[in-house]
Write a structure and sequence with these properties.
Layout (H helix, E strand, L loop, with lengths): L1 H11 L1 H16 L4 H37 L1 H12 L18
Helix pairs in contact: 3-4
């Protein structure tokens, strides 16, 4: 019985009540609550991954651009692969490696 009456006295304490209300307010009702912080952290992680991916694409594109500016064989290879260009005396066959079901 002492334990129950001791528990009620702790619950009736105004500092405990104020602390619990403050914690509940900060967790759920504050404009900068924990859910918003978690969402922003996830978004930051996604944006950082996207930035790393785009940085790699930019680096690869710059390397390809340098090769296109300096090498005639690279220009011909690029035109054949990307734009399906061909010489006058050639036939072009496009083989799609993805099988459609």
């Amino acid at each position: 019985m002492k334990f129950i009456s001791g528990t009620f006295s702790v619950i009736k304490n105004k500092y405990v009540i104020a602390s619990v209300l403050f914690i509940v307010w900060m967790l759920f009702f504050d404009p900068k609550d924990w859910g918003l912080i978690a969402d922003r952290t996830n978004k930051l992680t996604r944006l950082q991954k996207s930035e790393a991916h785009l940085t790699n694409l930019i680096k690869d594109t710059r390397i390809e651009l340098d090769l296109l500016k300096t090498n005639a064989q690279t220009i011909e290879k690029y035109a054949r692969e990307k734009y399906y260009m061909k010489k006058d005396n050639e036939d072009l066959f496009i083989v799609n490696s993805e099988a459609k079901r």
